[in-house]
């Protein structure tokens, strides 16, 4: 069995300490020399034969995992999984088994939220996983701790990719767009990537927000891509008009659960994409979506027919919402949003009065708006 890397060991120890203290400490930045070594090893995973390259092409499975995220890439004998669905379901694992997946070369947890790494421990435990990529941001949740334990038990390599890293796996080029460094903003600092397969390109940004999208634009990286995975399940905290213009996709896909209580996708995001001439698909109405390409052209196949529309019954779960989402709630500004993030989880909305400055009047304003909730 391989030993846990020092970076992962440090994260694991910090999470255990954080759980005891009921707070989460921020990990130190990944050692650049070590990361470069991991990058050079990554390109040596497998060398597919010429017949395999010609026959298989690339298939991207945007898996219907309900209110969560999971995408499988299969190409030339390789497989890669980006996120692993929600913690309270088995759709991601079930789908992999249905596809007769035996081993996965790379598993990426874009960020430690339970609707993205929910089934990652099971994936690592039940499949032969070569490498696990994560941002390095931590969580005090049992879901995150279970993932770390699964990595250690499996002996899979652990990598913290950073913007500017480029990995060549078979004919697929993976360019890391974000983050450059981590500060503890787990959602916003999602591992974001551009995938290039011949002339066809895909972008994935996890739950990165508009500020982070702007940093990707400002970096000067060519973001042009045919297929965009809409950030944060189609929330208006992601996919800014500027980012949409920079990517200029022909197809946009979001992952969300039918009738979810977050109101995903948001109307303004769908409208902006459609007004730009983008064809929009969503797992809530279309089920699992397949994009197949030979590197020259591509096709889109859906499990069900349906037209994406804005979500209803929107609610912002204060226990998992990003800072940008929290500030949409009446009475919540920068300071209160950060205090909520620092002091959560909350058992009920009334516990928000434990935050200095939030009194009964502010709480009533929050409740009257009907947007804040616990547990989504």
Q: Which key features would you list for this structure?
A:
about 375 residues; alpha/beta; eight-stranded mixed sheet; about 30% helix; about 20% strand
List the helices and strands and how they pair.
Layout: H1 6-21, H2 32-42, H3 50-56, E1 58-62, E2 71-75, E3 78-82, H4 91-98, E4 103-109, H5 120-126, E5 128-134, H6 142-154, E6 157-159, E7 166-169, E8 172-178, E9 192-197, E10 200-204, H7 210-218, E11 227-229, H8 241-247, E12 251-254, H9 267-275, E13 279-282, H10 283-286, E14 289-293, E15 298-302, E16 316-317, H11 323-326, H12 334-343, H13 360-369, E17 372-373
Parallel strand pairs: 3-4, 4-5, 5-6, 10-11, 11-12, 12-13, 16-17
Antiparallel strand pairs: 1-2, 1-14, 2-3, 7-8, 8-9, 9-10, 14-15
Main pleated sheet: 8 strands, mixed
What's the end-to-end separation, in Å? Answer: 40 Å
The class by helix and strand makeup works out as alpha/beta
Average pLDDT score: 85
Instruction: Indicate the proportion of strand residues.
Output: 15-25%
Backbone CA Rg: 20 Å
Q: Characterize the overall form.
A: globular
Classify the helix fraction into a percent range: 25-40%
Low-pLDDT regions: 15-54
The number of helices is 13
Secondary-structure element order, as H and E? HHHEEEHEHEHEEEEEHEHEHEHEEEHHHE
Describe this structure in words.
31% of the residues lie in helices and 21% in strands. The strands form three sheets. An eight-stranded mixed β-sheet has the order 6-5-4-3-2-1-14-15, with helices on both faces. A seven-stranded mixed β-sheet has the order 7-8-9-10-11-12-13. The protein has a two-stranded parallel ribbon with strand order 16-17. Helix 5 (120-126) packs parallel to helix 6 (142-154). With 376 residues, it is of the alpha/beta class. The chain has helices at 6-21, 32-42, 50-56, 91-98, 120-126, 142-154, 210-218, 241-247, 267-275, 283-286, 323-326, 334-343, 360-369, and strands at residues 58-62, 71-75, 78-82, 103-109, 128-134, 157-159, 166-169, 172-178, 192-197, 200-204, 227-229, 251-254, 279-282, 289-293, 298-302, 316-317, 372-373. It has 13 helices and 17 strands. The protein is globular and about 60 Å long. Helix 9 (267-275) links the parallel strand 12 (251-254) and strand 13 (279-282).
């Amino acid at each position: 069995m391989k030993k846990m890397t020092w970076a992962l060991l440090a994260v694991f120890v910090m999470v255990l300490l954080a759980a005891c203290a009921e707070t989460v400490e921020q990990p130190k930045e990944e050692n650049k020399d070590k990361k470069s070594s991991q990058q050079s090893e990554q390109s040596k995973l497998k060398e597919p034969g010429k017949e395999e390259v010609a026959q298989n092409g690339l298939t991207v499975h945007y898996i219907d995992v309900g209110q969560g995220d999971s995408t499988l890439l299969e190409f030339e004998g390789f497989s890669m999984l980006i996120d692993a669905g929600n913690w309270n379901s088995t759709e991601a694992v079930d789908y992999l088994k249905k596809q007769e997946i035996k081993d996965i070369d790379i598993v990426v947890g874009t960020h430690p939220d339970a609707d993205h790494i929910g089934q990652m421990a099971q994936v690592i435990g039940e499949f032969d996983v070569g490498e696990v990529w994560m941002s390095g941001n931590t969580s005090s949740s049992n879901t995150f701790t279970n993932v770390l334990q699964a990595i250690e038990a499996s002996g899979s390599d652990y990598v913290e990719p950073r913007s500017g890293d480029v990995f060549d796996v078979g004919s697929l080029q993976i360019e890391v767009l974000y983050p450059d460094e981590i500060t503890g903003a787990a959602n916003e600092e999602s591992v974001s990537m551009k995938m290039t397969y011949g002339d066809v390109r895909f972008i994935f940004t996890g739950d990165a927000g508009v500020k982070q999208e702007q940093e990707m634009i400002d970096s000067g990286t060519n973001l042009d891509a045919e297929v965009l995975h809409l950030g944060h399940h189609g929330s208006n905290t992601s996919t800014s008009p500027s980012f949409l213009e920079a990517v200029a996709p022909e197809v946009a896909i979001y992952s969300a659960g039918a009738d979810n209580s977050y109101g995903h996708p948001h109307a303004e995001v769908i409208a902006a994409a459609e007004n730009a001439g983008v064809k929009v698909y969503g797992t809530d109405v279309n089920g699992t979506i397949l994009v197949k390409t030979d590197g020259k052209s591509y096709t889109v196949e859906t499990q069900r027919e349906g037209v994406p529309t804005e979500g209803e019954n929107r609610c912002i779960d204060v226990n998992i919402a990003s800072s940008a989402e929290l500030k949409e709630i009446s009475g919540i500004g920068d300071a209160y949003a950060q205090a909520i993030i620092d002091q959560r989880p909350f058992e009920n909305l009334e516990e928000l009065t434990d935050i200095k400055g939030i009194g009964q009047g502010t709480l009533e304003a929050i409740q009257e708006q009907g947007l804040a909730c616990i547990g989504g």
